[in-house]
Amino acid sequence: MKWPSLKYINIGNNQLFGSIPTSIGLLANLLSLNLQNNSFSGRIPSSMHNCKKMLKMGLADNRLGGDIPTWIGTSLVELRILILHSNNLSGEISPELCQLSYLQILDLSNNELSGVIPRCVHNFTAMAVKKSMPDLYKLCGGEKSIYSFSVYIGGFIESALIVIKRSKLQYDTIIPLVTTIDISNNSLHGEIPTEVTYLLELKSLNLSRNELVGLVPDHIGDMKQLESLDLSRNSLCDLLMVCSLLVLSRRWRDAYFGLEERMWNKLCVFVIVKWRRITSSV
């Protein structure tokens, strides 16, 4: 590809197949790559580690296989959005991925991932520390940049399609305010690491349909920005404690709890939480 100035590629929702071209790695100025909803197969090409300015990678709904490359975490350190759901990706979630401190949206759901949830997830700083809108603009190159998550410039609007509680939500102008992790429908095992609860700015957390066991972290009630929490279809216990924590949290407005019909979890509830801002103290 001989387009050294190319910044945006969107060829999603087509009928493309075969391997992702390695020549994408020649696009050193690429900011956003959307190849979603095609039939690309093979591995994510290692040449893409040269796209060090990339802010969004969307490869969901393809037939990609192999491990999630470690170079995504070590080379694409500017990433804000990483959407790889609905592929055939396997292996473990590598600790290198935790180096993406600016990451706001992580969707690895509906793959064949195994292993444990990395304890280093608290390094997703953008999900842990509240950022002002000017800060986010600065991270994207400043107000004069041709790229901004929430600004329409040059005929291009950056957006993300996110599935929360089985509903597809299209985010355009409010992407700087969205923080979500979805690693549901894999084969992850072990316990939910306490470090997940350090992500105090997280809006949505979906760990459902895995093989997680043990207790839910004590401090999950501290995640007062959560709007959606799905831990269903695991083998977790002590969910009564979770219910009490959520009910007592000051900024949780409505909480709905219901048992999964066929007891996919041994002692688990399916939690849908809707959060509304409370102007007066409880």
From TrEMBL:
- Record localization: Membrane
Task: Please verify whether the record's keywords include Signal.
Answer: yes
InterPro entries, per the entry:
Leu-rich_rpt, LRR_dom_sf, RLP23-like
- The coiled-coil regions, if any, are none
Q: How does it sit in the membrane?
A: Single-pass type I membrane protein
The organism's place on the tree of life at top rank:
Eukaryota
Q: Which GO terms describe its cellular component?
A: membrane
Q: Has UniProt tagged this entry with the keyword Endoplasmic reticulum?
A: no
Q: What is its main location?
A: membrane
Query: Which Pfam families does the record match to this protein?
Result: LRR_1, LRR_8
The record's keywords, sorted A to Z, are:
Glycoprotein, Leucine-rich repeat, Membrane, Repeat, Signal, Transmembrane, Transmembrane helix
- PANTHER family from the xrefs? LRR RECEPTOR-LIKE KINASE, LRR RECEPTOR-LIKE SERINE_THREONINE-PROTEIN KINASE FLS2
- The name on file for this protein is LRR receptor-like serine/threonine-protein kinase FLS2
Organism, by scientific name, is Salvia splendens (Scarlet sage)
Q: What is the lineage of its organism?
A: Eukaryota, Viridiplantae, Streptophyta, Embryophyta, Tracheophyta
